[in-house]
Inverse folding.
């Protein structure tokens, strides 16, 4: 696992994911990896898939995106695309026809397939897979799974009472201080229905990295003082820690903590992040002008220890953003 993705420094979490993924169990079980964007969920999730494949599990995987939440059965197509030809003979004819119509593998008839028929087909496909191999169903960014897939999966999982079936999902939680998601609605939690459908389920929260973990994540030439600064400004988020550390020496970078440009160990102008955020839907784009007019200081960024806008302190300082880090507040420049 690459340290740059925040996985190597999360040794305890990685051990838990590894043990879960490689186990061939007698009864179905689920593990959800939960954390804010950039916390290292996908790194752990992908490493878990590698371990499961090496242990002989059949992988049914999907990695939905935010743009696919309204595409019915997009996730189900990901999960079953490779295995459907292998288990089609085990699915009753009417159910198979309904599933193939839902997955756009055959033309629809006069009547659309029912959710019940598709759920039964998913159940038959799972049982067919379980008769041959241990099965790991794996979904990254499960908060973006489309509703139709979620419904079919929940229906099927409730009815698999035994066998070597595992469910490994990674889910994003809200991060109010992330400038790339500020103003966006909180991530959907409907995916928790999948956990409720399993006989055994657990949720593993990825807490912020501590200063020593952040220092181990950063390049070896980063000093302990710089690591403390990065840990404080990134709030222990691995992704943002790397972005902030990449521009420690860039005095011209006017961005506040948690507003650094993507790309480890690169020094890109602030406009790069603004271009990236402007390409997002309007509801997710950070309001840079509002931050400037409020003269927000980096030590009063919402997710720091103060947890609120400290306008009374920042009003006595130079306008935000500062031209150089020396103009920033003392707690972030030491």
């Amino acid at each position: 696992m690459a340290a740059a993705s925040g996985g190597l420094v999360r040794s305890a979490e990685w051990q838990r994911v590894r043990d879960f993924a490689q186990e061939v169990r007698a009864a179905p079980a689920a593990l959800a990896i939960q954390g804010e964007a950039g916390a290292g969920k996908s790194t752990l999730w992908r490493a878990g898939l590698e371990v499961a494949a090496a242990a002989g599990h059949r992988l049914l995987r999907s990695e939905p995106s935010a743009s696919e939440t309204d595409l019915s059965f997009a996730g189900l197509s990901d999960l079953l695309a490779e295995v459907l030809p292998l288990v089609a003979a085990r699915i009753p004819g009417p159910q198979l026809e309904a599933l193939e119509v839902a997955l756009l593998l055959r033309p629809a008839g006069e009547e659309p397939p029912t959710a019940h028929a598709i759920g039964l087909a998913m159940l038959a496909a799972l049982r067919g897979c379980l008769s041959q191999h241990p099965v790991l169903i794996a979904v990254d960014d499960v908060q973006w799974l489309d509703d139709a897939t979620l419904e079919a999966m929940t229906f099927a999982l409730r009815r698999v009472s035994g066998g070597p079936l595992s469910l490994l999902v990674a889910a994003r939680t809200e991060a109010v201080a992330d400038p790339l998601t500020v103003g966006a609605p909180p991530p959907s939690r409907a995916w928790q229905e999948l956990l409720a459908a399993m006989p055994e389920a657990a949720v593993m929260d990825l807490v912020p990295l501590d200063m020593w973990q952040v220092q181990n994540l950063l390049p070896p030439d980063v000093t302990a003082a710089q690591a403390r600064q990065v840990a404080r400004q990134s709030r222990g988020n691995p992704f943002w820690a790397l972005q902030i550390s990449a521009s420690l020496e860039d005095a011209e970078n006017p961005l506040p903590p948690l507003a650094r440009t993507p790309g480890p160990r690169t020094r890109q102008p602030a406009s790069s992040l603004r271009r990236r955020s402007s390409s997002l839907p309007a509801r997710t784009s950070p309001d840079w002008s509002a931050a400037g007019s409020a003269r927000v200081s980096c030590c009063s960024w919402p997710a720091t220890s103060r947890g609120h806008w400290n306008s009374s302190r920042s009003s006595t300082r130079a306008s935000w953003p500062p031209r150089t880090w020396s103009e920033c507040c003392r707690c972030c420049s030491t």
Summary: Residues 1-7, 259-334 have pLDDT under 50 and may be disordered. The beta strands are 29-35, 58-62, 135-139, 165-172, 201-205. The CA atoms of residues 122 and 156 lie 6 Å apart. The chain has 15 helices and five strands.
